[in-house]
Amino acid sequence: MSPANDPAVIARLLSTPGRWAVVGLSTNTARAAYGVATYLRRSGHTVVPVHPSAPTMHGQSGYARLLDVPGPIDVVDVFVNSWRAGAVVDEAIAMGARAVWLQLGVVDEVAADRARAAGLDVVMDACPSIEGAALGGAGGRAGADGR
After folding, report:
1. pLDDT at 113
2. What range defines the domain where residue 36 resides?
3. Do 54 and 63 form a contact (C-beta atoms < 8 A)?
4. How far is residue 147's CA from residue 143's CA, in Å, rounded to a whole number?
5. 125 contact partners, CB below 8 Å, separation of at least 6
6. Looking at the 3D structure of the chain, how many domains does it have?
7. pLDDT higher than 90, residue 35
8. Strand partners, 46
9. CATH code, 128
10. What is the per-residue pLDDT for 97?
11. Is residue 144 in some structural domain?
C-alpha cells in the first residue's frame, strides 16, 4: 500500500501558484471538476482544461489529451474513473509534470507508485478545495473567499 498523503506536499501544491492541468474538466457547472477548477483559479493557479471535447474554460484553451498540452505543467489533477487514472498518470510522467493529484474516489496505488518512482509528488483520494479549506484557504495563503 502506498504511503498516506503528505500534508506538507498538499500545503506546498496548494499554496505555490502553479499551472494545473485538470483532466476531465468540462463546461458542466454541476460537475465537481468545474467547482475545483474555479477554486484553483481563485487561489492563484492557472487551470488548463483537458477533456475529449477540448473546451475553452476560464480563458484557457482546452486540450483533448494531456500530452497535447504545450509547456510545463506543475500538477495534473485527475478527474477520471480509477480504472483510467493509470493512463493519465503515465502521461503526466511522460510530459514531465511535477505532481499528480487524484481526486476523491480516484485510487490507483500502482500508478501512484509509478509516479513516485519517477519523482512526482502524489496526492490521492483527496480534493484541493477541501484540503485548502482545512489549511485555511489555499494552503493557508488565501482567505475564506479563495483570494
Report:
1. 97
2. 7-134
3. yes
4. 6
5. 5, 102, 103, 104, 105, 106, 107
6. 1
7. yes
8. 19
9. 3.40.50.720
10. 98
11. no
SS (H, E, C) the chain: CCCCCCHHHHHHHHHCCCEEEEECCCCCCCCHHHHHHHHHHHCCCEEEEECCCCCCECCECCECCHHHCCCCCCEEEECCCHHHHHHHHHHHHHHCCCEEEECCCCCCHHHHHHHHHCCCEEECCCCHHHHHHHCCCCCCCCCCCCC
Tell me if 145 is assigned to some domain: no
How far apart are alpha carbons 4 and 115 in whole angstroms?
14
User: Looking at the domain assignment, is residue 139 inside a domain?
Assistant: no
Answer whether residue 117 shows pLDDT above 50. Answer: yes
Three cell numbers written together for 104: 476523491
Q: What pLDDT does 128 receive?
A: 96
Domain assignment present for residue 117? The answer is: yes
The chain-wide mean pLDDT, for the chain, equals 90
pLDDT in tens, 61-107: 999 999 999 999 999 999 999 999 999 999 999 999 999 999 999 99
How is residue 122 written as a grid cell?
A: 502524489
